[in-house]
Records
---
Amino acid sequence: MNKKVARMRRARKTRAKIAELKAVRLTVHRSNCHIYAQVISGCGSQVLASASTVEQAVRSQVPNGGNAQAATVVGKLIAERAKAAGIETVAFDRAGFHYHGRVKALAEAAREGGLKF
């Protein structure tokens, strides 16, 4: 089993539970160079808000998109955009990534920004 298959296996149970609850979810994806966050509707068909280190506004704040400092900036930005869209409560979908490092930094920044999960 390679790393991607193992990660997707870990993600399957969480995503099934969130889909069963029909909850709005905050999903995170990370690569070596960047981190991405999206708020997805309960039915799973619409992206309500998004933020990533690829955006020019974020790149001007942090020189490297692949560290915890960049994840903190993205977490605050996604919380701000979700609140602007009228979303207060989300389910956190870490997409099979371990709750550690950049994923944890993004989650904590989103909580500080006002999202509840």
Note: The first helix runs from residue 3 to 21.
---
Amino acid sequence: MIAKPKEFYRGIFMLAAFSIVFASFMSPVFNGKNGLDFLDNFYNSISKSSSYYVPKLKKSAEKFSGNMIKVSLELGKQDAETALQMFNAIGVKPIKTADQISIEADMKLILDALLIDADLMVANDGAKLKEKYGIDEKRAMFTWWKVAGEIDKKLKKQDKFKEAIMFDSVKKKGIEQAYNYYGVKMEKAQDKIILMSLSLIFYVIYTIWYGYSILFIFEGIGLKIGH
């Protein structure tokens, strides 16, 4: 039984309109993508820009020029083979024994290689990494991620904490960011302020719209919400 027809049919109309907009939003009308995927990619692009620290990391790496490090890295058989190939490509000559490789090199030489490759991934230019190392670009970056983590761990055991922190920062803020956002176009928030504002306004209005449509339907059938 409908207790308040006016409220009930108002709610039904609002819910029907909500459903039409929702169906349109979930259709591939945004360059072949639905609205959810479009906005997800859009905000990923914005967050990629805000989490881009490679230029700052390159500047921080300058202070380690001439700082020689000597470490043995335990990477596992497959990663050790890949790392050996990659180190040779950047001019570091490691010694491999079983699943371990030992390196002795200028710390900045290694940091520069990691950050240059991270920048290529940020630019979505994986083809250059493939050409450089002869392996899949994501595989190469994953290997650098493991290498940076191992160097960080081994330097801490040598009480070289400043050096270890630098490799940890490159791993987390450089390599991880580049790997996770690979394939995502980087956009600056200030360049997309209008679209950001419209999407947030739409979200607020749409959420309230749905809430009121349910409220009117409940009121129409005589239900009351109280405490």
Note: Residues 54-180 form one domain.
---
Amino acid sequence: MLLAGQVVTQIGGEEGVALEDQIWEAVSSWQAYTACALLAGGIIFAIYGWRISKVLAVINFGIIGGFAGHWLGGLLGLNEIASTVGLGAVLGGLCIWQTRHGVSLLAGGAGGVLGASLCYSLSLANAWIWAGFLLGFVTFALLAFIIYKVAAVLYSSVLGSSLVVVGVLSLLSTQASISQGLASALRDHVYLLPIMLWIPTAASIVIQQMKLKRDPSWVIDS
């Protein structure tokens, strides 16, 4: 989710460096085993994410809290390890206490990423990308609060698909024969990255819905 969120946070990225170049630089620096691990995890999340949605929510909030704690520790001059672990534990604990709300907020974030990526694919200005994120966040967060299954399926689909995409890109970056051409294609066609996210996300949603209908013993708890 954090990597997918780069679609939204591109304004804060390195000035003059395109989002595609930032992502490509990151994924091409990973080892093959890292890419395989991300790919495997992404496939599991994309197919069975609804089943482990509450655990994923706690982990995600713990990670978000850890990053926020690390940033605040450096900003306020605090012990960065203590602030990272402390805030991560606090947000993770809050998510355990209010899991349904946590999953719904993550679903809002997933909807925001999809909305922002749509605006990004159309080469709109940064203000419109932020507007797309806010519209997607509010729409899906409100819907998720009403229908929990929507929240669990949506955010796990986006999370799993994001891991699949970056895992595949990382593996492809190790192939010298296609690495340069793929990097150029991503740079020249801004809609490629969003399409790479949308297609597996749509497939994941369909697969999870089919499994929910065919396996009633695994219905998401409300």
Note: The first helix runs from residue 19 to 27.
---
Amino acid sequence: MSRRALVLTPDHVARTKRVVADPGLDPKVEYFSDADYARIVDEMLAMRPKASPLWLFACGSLIWKPEVDHIEERKARAHGWHRSFCFRITRFRGTPEVPGVMMAMDRGGQCKGVLYRLSDEAPEATLNKLFRREFIAKPPNNLPRWITVEPEGETPVQAIAFVMNRQSPAYLGRLEHEVVADYLASACGHAGSGAEYLYNTVHHLAERGIYDRNLMRLQALVAEKIGG
């Protein structure tokens, strides 16, 4: 198989999907309040580089479901971070009975992704909407952070990215590909399956000419496990 061959197909994904009811919020978990989101938005905007566009770096689902409007997009690279299926989920794309794993940007390596320029009209509302999508429970799995990103052939910029909170009890650390593939081939929640998430990510990256070696290996393993 070619290093860049996409093996995981919509047919594989269809085999992993099933109807799952949304269990809703867990009464034992503390969730972010309106005031919490407003405070974090203010803190992030206070750290924004002066006279700089508002940039967002996307490495996963934000590529194929950006959530907020953007003016332009560019391929870019973030040094010091890599994509990793590194935290456990029991809602959205998993259940308590069949938990899944979700991808985040974890420390080390490098990550090619998409850099979005967000509108400067009402940035508070834009970030509030974005943050509500990315984290809801305390402690959060994804933390918003300003990182240095290099657009192709251009000067590095500061962009907001969501990075893994290693203090989260859901954090699993670095898992073997076989273990991740087992999770992704079996887990499904009310928002869809792990295989669907992986399929959307690798295909939308490929459309932009971005190939992540680890994800390419994973999609082939997941396709094999579903097919088997």
Note: The mean pLDDT is 96.
